[in-house]
Amino acid sequence: MCRVLILNLSDQFKFQKINHFAMATDKQNVLFIISDQHRYDHMGCSGNSVVKTPILDKFSSESVHFTEAFSCGAMCMPTRASLMTGLYPNTHGVRSNGMILSEKIPTLTDTLVKHGYYTAAFGKLHLQYNVAPWFDGFPSAESFLGWTSQPERMPVHDNFPIPYYGFQEVEMCLGHGACLTGHYLNWLEERAPHLAGNMRERWRDMDNFFGVFTEHKIPAKLYSSAYVAERTIAFLERHAQGEYGDTPFYLHCGFPDPHQPCFPPGKYRTMYKEKDMELPPNFNNLENLRDHPYLGQFINVMPGAMLRETTEEEVKKFIAYTYGIVTLMDLHIGEILKAIDRLGYRDNTITIYTSDHGDLMGEHGMLFKGPSHGMGVFHIPMIWRVPDCKPAVSEALITQVDYPVTLMNMVGIKKRQLPEMQGMNMLPVLQSPNDSSVEPRNCVLIENDEEVGRLNVRLRHLVTKEYKLTMYEGYPHHGDLFDRKSDPYEMNNLWYDKKLKDLRFQLVNQLFQECLKNQSRLPKRIAGT
Question: pTM of the predicted model, to two decimals?
Answer without folding.
Answer: 0.93
